Amino acid sequence: MFIHFAPNTWQDKEGDDLSIKPKDLNPKKLDTDQWVAVAKSMGAKYIVFVAKHVGGFCWWQTETTDYSVKNTPWKGGQGDVMADLAKSCKKAGIALGVYLSPRDDYFKIVTGGKAKTPEAQADYEAKFRIQLTELLTKYGDIEEVWFDGSLVFGVKDILDKHAPNAVVFQGPEASIRWVGNEHGFAPDPAWNTVKFGAKKWGNFTAADGDPNGDRWLPNECDARIRNTWFWRTDNLETLKSVDDLMEMYELSVGRSSTLLLNNTPDPSGLIPEPDAKRSAEFGAEIKRRYKYPVIDTAGTGTELNMGPSSPVTIDAAMIQEDIRKGERIREYTVEGLVDGEWKVLSKGTAIGYKKIDRFPAVEVSQIRLIVSKSAANPIISKFAVFNTGAK
Questions:
Q1: 68 neighbors 142 (Cβ within 8 angstroms)
Q2: How far, in Å, CA of 27 to CA of 6, rounded?
Q3: How do residues 57-87 score in pLDDT, each as one tens digit?
Q4: Beta strand 312-321 pairing with 355-364
Q5: Which run of H or E residues covers position 193?
Q6: Which residue from 56, 100, 105, 235 has the least number of CB within 10 angstroms?
C-alpha cells in the first residue's frame, strides 16, 4: 500500500503550492495503526510512505529543513510520522518502505534532484544525503526506497551501508522498475528481465522487458484507489469498485508484477471510512477468488496434468514458476478436457512469479498445462485452477 500525505492534502490539490505554513497543519486524529490495519485488510505485505513529496515537506524530525513536522502544532512539534508508522508496521508484521522525492519545490529543486547552479546542486545533494541517511537509520529495516522521477546523482554508498536488502525504485541503483502507467496494469507479456545498456539505468519500464535480458528488474504497478494521489473533497465518487480493483489485481499481480495501491489520509490524519471499507472488501474478494483452488499441483517438465474426482467448473488458472531458477517458460497453453475433447482455455508467454488467466466458465474433467517453448526445463511451483464466479 502506498500512502500519500502532504500539505496539499489541506489544499485540495495534487501538488503542494506552498501556500499553507507548517503551523496550520494539525492532523489531530492521525493514527498509523489505522493505516496499517487498512493495509492488512487488503492483503498488503508492505507500506511505502511518502515521507517527502515534491513540495519538500518532511514528516519526520529532520535537521535539513524548517519545512517539516517539527514546526507544526501536531504533538507540539515533537511528532514523527515515520517513527509512529515504523512502530505500527513492526507490531502488525508489515514491512515499511519510504518515498523520498528528489524534487523539492521548497528548495527550488526540479525533477531528479537537479538544481540551477553548481553551488545549489552541491548544497541540495548534501541535504538529500542527510535526509536519506536519517530515513534509513532511525526507523528499522526499510523494505523499499522510492526515488520518484529518478536521481541525477548517486547515493549507492548510503543504500549499501544502511539498506543493503531494500529494493530501489528508479535512480542509478534501481532494482525494480516502473510499469509505465499509473493504472495498476502490467502488459502481457510482462517479462522480469531487461538488457543492460538498452536504456539509462533507472528509466526502464515494462515496455523494456526482454525474455533474453541479462538483468532481473521486476515491475511495480503504482495505482490509486481514487482518481488522485492525495485526498480531496471533490472525488469520493471516483473511489474504485471492487470489480475495478480486482481487474487491477489480475492485470498486475496476475502478470508477475507487484501492485502498489495508494490510500490517502484526509486532514484529520485518518484514511476515510469509505476508502478503508473498500480496501477491506478488495482484500476479501482476492481471498474469495484465489485462496482455495478447485485443484492444484506442482512439478517440472513440459506438461503437468491434474484431474478432479468428478467434473468441475472453472474460470481461472494460476501458474507460478520457481523464479529462484529464473523465468524459463516462453510459451504455454492451459487446456481442459471437455466432453472427451481437449479444449484450449488460455495461452500465453511470460509467467514469472505468478500468471493469472481468466476465461469463460467451463466444466472440465481434466486440466493440463503444456509448455511448448522454454529456455530450460520448466519448474512449476504451482499450477492451480479456480471457480471465481466473477463476471
A1: no
A2: 11
A3: 999 999 999 999 999 999 999 999 999 999 9
A4: antiparallel
A5: strand 193-194
A6: 235
15/87 Cα distance (integer angstroms): 28
CA proximity to 100, closest of 77, 122, 124, 118: 124
Go through the domains of the chain in sequence order and give each one's CATH number: 2-290 (3.20.20.80), 295-386 (2.60.120.260)
Please give the Cα distance from 125 to 386 (Å, whole number): 51
Q: In which region does residue 93 sit, left (phi positive, over 0), alpha (psi from -120 to 50) or beta (all else)?
A: left
Within 8 A by CB and 6+ apart from 162, the residues are: 133, 136, 137
Residues in the chain: 391
Contacts for 110 with CB less than 8 Å, ≥ 6 apart: 103
Residues 143, 164: Cα–Cα separation, whole Å: 10
DSSP label of 106: G
Peptide bond into 164 cis (omega under 30): no
Q: Give the Cα separation of 278 and 225 in Å (integer).
A: 9
**pTM confidence score:** 0.96
What are the strands, taking DSSP E only, across 202-311? 215-216, 219-224, 258-263, 295-300, 303-306
Tell which residue, 7, 12, 3, has the closest CA to residue 231. 12
Helix, coil or strand: residue 4: coil
Q: Letter for the amino acid at 347?
A: K
End-to-end CA distance of the chain: 26
SS3 per residue for 69-86: HHHCCHHHHCCCHHHHHH
Q: Per-residue pLDDT tens for 274-310?
A: 999 999 999 999 999 999 999 999 999 999 999 999 9
What is the C-alpha separation between 69 and 315, in angstroms, rounded? 50
The sign of the dihedral angle between the CA atoms of 262, 265, 266, 272 is positive
